Amino acid sequence: GPTPPEEPFGGFKLKAVPLKFIKKIQDIVLQEAESIGSSAMFECEVSPSTAITTWMKADSNLRESPKHKFTSDGKDRKLNIIDVQLSDTGEYTCIAKNAGKEISCTAKLIVEVKWIKELEPETSALKGQPLYMTCELNKERDVIWKRNGEVLKKKAGKVQINVIGMQHAVTIQNTTEEDTGVYTCAVANQEDVQTTTSVKIIEIIKDWIVKPLRDQHVKPKAAATFKCELFKDTPNWKWLKGETEVTPSDKVEVQKDGKQLTLTIKNCQPDDVAEYAMEVE
């Protein structure tokens, strides 16, 4: 009969080396002082070493030029960007091709942005008055303002968002308690570069006490009750006997029902005779 066909290479089959990046390009962050005029290098390793690589910036193919130098040494691939300018910032991609297959990896060239002037840690305004927040970057960049994590939007007659070069400002007109919260200003696409302020709106009420206290004339061992009504509910109040704060005890009862406050002194004795007052902050 016919002889069986021989196994190629005595039983060994050649497998194609899968196309892959052993090491991908990484983001490059240049500090302000060293960035302009220096060079920046993206490096990666590709397997197999016979893979053909090309480089792109955003959606444009890069060509070898005095600006862009390509190096290919075994598995190592390098893109050297000469004399870095702000216009060189952006996304760079290395594309590797081999045997009809294609893979890519992408990284960013970032010239670091930082705050020259941050927001004040705390900002306050009187209720009804405008509130102003301002900060400044070392470069012109788009920013995103947020209040309590929600994006702050312009609103006619209420919220103004202004940009003057590298200065960023927010003005809130006719402030109310609803404007309190944590405000942040972050660089768009670099949200770790952010500054924060805690906003408080202060309400000054000249006449907190709507119904004043009345003098109490009581017989010994009887109870004296002082009542007053506040302009609005607040936790910031205290009863005073002379200059001393009065606290609840077996003898003294303090009650609060919304805006109504009551102080009762039981079993009145001569040493209870004094001026009692309600103090609201």
From TrEMBL:
Key word Secreted present: no
Keywords (A to Z) from UniProt: Cytoplasm, Disulfide bond, Immunoglobulin domain, Nucleus, Phosphoprotein, Repeat
Protein name listed in UniProt: Ig-like domain-containing protein
Cellular component aspect of the GO annotation: cytoplasm; nucleus
Gene3D superfamilies referenced in this protein's UniProt entry, alphabetically: Immunoglobulins
UniProt key word Phosphoprotein: yes
PROSITE patterns to which the protein is assigned, alphabetical: IG_LIKE
Source organism, top-level taxon: Eukaryota
UniProt xrefs under PANTHER family: OBSCURIN LIKE CYTOSKELETAL ADAPTOR 1, SI:DKEY-31G6.6
SMART domains registered for this protein in UniProt: IG, IGc2
Domain Ig-like: residue ranges: 18-104, 107-202
